[in-house]
């Protein structure tokens, strides 16, 4: 016998998709997560979990199985979603369902994953294993605040991990991955580049140093020379994007300063240090040709291209769980965006798989949606995963 998303006992009492609609109807922009946090806290309490919030506002529900030690399993997702924006043809908080598709802000990022996680937690905490036996270990649900804002130091998961508040043997990070377990993600580096020149009268540019022209040389060199490394895991190359540029005061003054914001997406294997060194090397190459070039690079945001081995128990158990529920064998994939999994993996040393229903290409758009059946499938996969991870024989899953 297998699990079903009955949600009979404990908190949710509904299918994962029905719960998702409730979640969508509660607005939860970054910085305004309280109402949703209280709603989810109520669900977790009903399941019999120990519920608390940390000083950063992150919400936790904890449940311990058995007396003996066992692995600590973390389900992490974020409470906030991006602002609504324009262009919606359906109410962004109406949670309309049509032809098995649920629409709304947060439908796939992150509330589809959250509904699946809560349903799985509800099942595992309130139902005995269908094949008998018992569970051992600790389950933690974490609803993080401020995932959708920059810089990293403003994010709830980053703060909690840096404070040592999050400890686990393995984790799932809830994001829209089309229900494919992802074992790595894009890194995201944000730079501010500044060029310093010398002002002079617009009629005598030869007496000044034009910071805007120097910036133009730098940006062209970066565009032409920056490595965009291919990643099999992501099925993509890394990127470089010049997002903004500004400089100068007035048309008849040689500009003294220019600024540009440059974003790089790194693939697993590339590091933050390596990325900065590459930028400096390219800029220094320009300086060899233009000796009076004076530039500085500030790192405005740093996110690593985190990756874990496919042999990690988290990765293996998720593959097995997808297979058990769907009959499909998932290929190794990476998440083509940057998620809180980074902080869990690189700062918290917690092997983390990114997983959830819905397509990343729908996230942050005015047509955000998710298929109800995919939310139910994700709930079953996560239930299966928790069941496998929390078996007494899984004691060897604990990190030494
Ligand atoms: Zn997200």
Q: In terms of topology, how is this protein built?
A:
Elements: H1 16-24, H2 34-46, E1 50-53, E2 59-65, E3 72-78, E4 97-98, E5 101-103, H3 111-126, E6 137-144, H4 156-162, E7 170-174, E8 182-185, E9 187-196, H5 211-225, E10 230-231, E11 236-237, E12 239-247, E13 257-266, H6 272-289, E14 295-303, H7 313-326, E15 333-335, H8 341-347, E16 352-355, E17 369-371, H9 372-389
Parallel strand pairs: 3-6, 3-7, 7-16, 8-15
Antiparallel strand pairs: 1-2, 2-6, 4-5, 5-17, 9-13, 9-14, 10-11, 12-13
Concise overview:
This protein is α/β, with parallel strands linked by helices. The chain is built from nine helices and 17 strands.
Q: What low-confidence regions span 5 or more consecutive residues with pLDDT below 50?
A: none
User: Which hetero ligands occur in this complex?
Assistant: zinc ion
Number of domains: 2
Q: Quickly give the CATH architecture of the largest domain.
A: 3-Layer(aba) Sandwich
Order of helices and strands: HHEEEEEHEHEEEHEEEEHEHEHEEH
The biggest beta sheet, please? 6 strands, mixed
Look up the CATH topology of the largest domain: Aminopeptidase
With strands numbered from the N-terminus, the spatial order across the biggest sheet is 1-2-6-3-7-16
Mean pLDDT over all positions: 94
Which value, in Å, is the CA radius of gyration? 24 Å
Number of helices: 9
Helix proportion of residues, in percent? 25-40%
N- and C-termini, Cα separation: 34 Å
């Amino acid at each position: 016998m297998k699990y079903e998303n009955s949600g009979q006992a404990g908190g949710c009492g509904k299918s994962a998709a029905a719960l998702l609609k409730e979640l969508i109807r509660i607005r939860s922009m970054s910085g305004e997560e309280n109402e949703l946090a209280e709603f989810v806290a109520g669900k977790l309490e009903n399941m019999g979990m120990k519920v608390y919030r940390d000083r950063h506002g992150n919400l936790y529900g904890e449940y311990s199985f058995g007396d003996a030690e066992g692995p600590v399993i973390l389900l992490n997702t974020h409470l906030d979603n991006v602002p609504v924006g324009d262009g919606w043809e359906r109410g962004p908080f109406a949670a309309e369902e049509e032809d098995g598709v649920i629409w709304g802000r947060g439908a796939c990022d992150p509330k589809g994953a959250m509904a699946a996680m809560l349903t799985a937690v509800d099942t595992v905490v309130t139902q005995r294993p269908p094949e008998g036996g018992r569970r051992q270990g600790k389950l933690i649900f974490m609803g993080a605040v401020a995932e959708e804002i920059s810089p990293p130091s403003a994010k709830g998961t980053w703060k909690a991990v840096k404070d040592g508040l999050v400890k686990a043997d393995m984790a799932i990070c809830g994001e829209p991955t089309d229900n494919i377990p992802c074992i790595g993600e894009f890194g995201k580096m944000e730079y501010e580049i500044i060029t310093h020149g010398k002002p002079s009268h617009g009629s005598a540019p030869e007496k000044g140093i034009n910071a805007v022209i120097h910036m133009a040389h730098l940006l062209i060199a970066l565009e032409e020379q920056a490595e965009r490394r291919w990643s099999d895991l992501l099925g993509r190359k890394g990127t470089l994007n010049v997002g903004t540029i500004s400089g100068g005061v007035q048309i008849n003054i040689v500009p003294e300063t220019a600024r540009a914001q440059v974003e790089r997406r790194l693939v697993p294997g590339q590091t933050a240090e390596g990325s900065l060194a590459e930028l400096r090397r390219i800029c220094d190459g320009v300086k060899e040709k233009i000796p009076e070039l004076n530039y500085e690079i500030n790192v405005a945001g740093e996110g690593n291209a985190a990756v874990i081995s496919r042999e990690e128990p988290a990765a293996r158990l998720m593959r097995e769980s997808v297979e058990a529920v769907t009959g499909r064998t998932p290929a190794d994939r990476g998440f083509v965006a940057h998620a809180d999994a980074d902080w869990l993996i690189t700062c918290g040393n917690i092997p983390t798989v990114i997983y959830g229903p819905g397509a990343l290409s729908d996230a942050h758009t005015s047509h955000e949606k998710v298929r109800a059946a995919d939310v139910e499938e994700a709930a079953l996969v996560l239930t299966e995963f928790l069941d496998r991870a929390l078996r007494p024989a899984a004691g060897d899953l604990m990190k030494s």
